[in-house]
Amino acid sequence: MTLLAAGVTKRSKRSYMNSDTTIAILGGTGPQGQGLALRFAIAGVSVALGSRDGDRAAAIAEELNKKLNGRSEAHIHGCDNLGAVDAAEQFVLVAVPYAGHDATLAAIKSRLSGKVLVDLVVPLAAANPRAVAMPKEGSATEAAQALLGSEMKVVGALHNVSAHTLNALDEKINCDILACGDDLEATDAAVDLIKRLGVEAYNCGPAVNARCIEAITPILIRLNMSKKVPFSHAGIRIWRPGHSGV
């Protein structure tokens, strides 16, 4: 089955990235959002850190810029969610807790025209992060697409990398990134953006595949919590045949 036959829409080609782009990260005041903001800034991508509380976002952005300590000329600035979306040239990343997922998207829907929404949210089960509780649409990515409408470009990605790993700036990110979405061009563009973090990233097909990708997260959480596994903050890698993985 081709991507087009599987429901992936191929749009006319356009440039999604430039050297001085600004992205938005909503839920940016949480550990995952902060780690991503730092990583993207180091990669030369400026970040509009979004939160329901714009003052808190501004304060955390100031702290993050201090952590950069001259590593990059890119800047992190904090604002409320709508301000962050407006500041984003093309990409809006959503890293809010699942409980706030739909409400956040509904609040920013009118400001997303012409942009790509990258959904990082995993619908973990209440009181049990070692299991998922998928919405009726099948995944958070598909729920986002349904809520925003078929014309909105939605990509699911960055579900399986731990916040601890993202914030360990002196270490390389220890996993590959899987992305999926029904707009082929937008998904490829999101993959290119993510690769700027110094990781391998893969277009894994249409949004329905988010059901598998998002479900990997609780498996990793379970392993990372297990006393039988001698390490934590594990990720996944895609290895070619015959490659040792070293």
From TrEMBL:
Keyword Oxidoreductase recorded: yes
SUPFAM superfamilies: NAD(P)-binding Rossmann-fold domains
InterPro entries, A to Z: NAD(P)-bd_dom_sf, NpdG, P5C_Rdtase_cat_N, STEAP_metalloreductase
Species this chain originates from: Bradyrhizobium sacchari
GO MF annotations, alphabetized: coenzyme F420 binding; cupric reductase (NADH) activity; ferric-chelate reductase (NADPH) activity; NADP binding; oxidoreductase activity, acting on NAD(P)H
Domain of life of the native organism: Bacteria
Pfam family membership, one: F420_oxidored
Domain Pyrroline-5-carboxylate reductase catalytic N-terminal: 22-122
The entry's keywords: Oxidoreductase
Protein name per its UniProtKB record: Reduced coenzyme F420:NADP oxidoreductase
GO cellular component, one term: plasma membrane
Biological processes, Gene Ontology terms: copper ion import; NADPH regeneration
